[in-house]
Amino acid sequence: xxxxxxxxxxxxxxxxxxxxxxxxxxxxxxxxxxxxxxxxxxxxxxxxxxxxxxxxxxxxxxxxxxxxxxxxxxxxxxxxxxxxxxxxxxxxxxxxxxxxxxxxxxxxxxxxxxxxxxxxxxxxxxxxxxxxxxxxxxxxxxxxxxxxxxxxxxxxxxxxxxxxxxxxxxxxxxxxxxxxxxxxxxxxxxxxxxxxxxxxxxxxxxxxxxxxxxxxxxxxxxxxxxxxxxxxxxxxxxxxxxxxxxxxxxxxxxxxxxxxxxxxxxxxxxxxxxxx
Length: 276
Known about the structure:
Elements: H1 2-8, H2 17-53, H3 55-62, E1 67-70, H4 76-92, H5 94-105, H6 111-148, E2 156-159, H7 160-189, H8 195-200, H9 202-216, H10 222-260, H11 266-275
Parallel strand pairs: 1-2
C-alpha cells in the first residue's frame, strides 16, 4: 500500500486529489475501527463512569435534599449507556484518531514542523485530561448552586440524558480550553505568530478566559469560575513565555547567519519587528 502510494506521487512527492481522498478514506477507516473497539470497552466501563458522574446528585441526597436522576422514557437508560460508552470510546481511541489526523497532514509538513506537531500532541493529551479533571472538580459546586435555587420542599429530579449532556459538554469544553495555550505555542514555533504578539494581547486573552469560564459555569458561582480561569491564565502566560524565548533563540540564530554574509542590519530590523 505504501509502495503504491509512493509510486502514485509525482517527481516532487505530491499526491493527486484522488490519492488524497483514498488516503483520507484509509485514515477514517482506521479511526472508526479504533472507536468501535473502544465502544466495546466503553460498554463495560460505562457503569463505573456513570457512577462517578452521578455522585454530585447523590451528595445532595446525603445532605437531606430529595434528589435523584430519572429516565424520561423506556429507552432512556439504554440511550444513556450508549452515550457514555461512545464518550469513553472517543477518549480511549484518541491516540489512534489523533495519529490518523497527524498521519494525513504530515506528508505536507517539513521535518521541523513534524517534530513540533509531535510535541503538540504529547502536551495536548495530558493538558486535555487535566482540563477535564478540573471540569469534574467544579461540577459538584455547579450542581449544588443550581439546586439551591429550589425551595426546600421541592424535589430535585434530573433527567438522565440532560444531566449527562451537561456533564460531558462541561468536561470537553474545559479540556479543550486547557489545550489552547499549547496551540499558541505550536503556531509560534511554525512562524505564524510571534511571542511578543501573544504577550501584548494578555488583556484580551484574560477577558476571553473569564468569559469562557463564566459560560462554562453559572454566573453566581464565582469560586468555580475562579478555579477554571486561574489555571488557564497561568497556562496562557507560560505559553507566551515559551514563545518569547523561542523567538529570541530564533532571532539570535538568524542574526548569526546574516552576520556571516555581512548583513548586520538584521539586528535592527528584528528589533523593529518585535516592537511592532
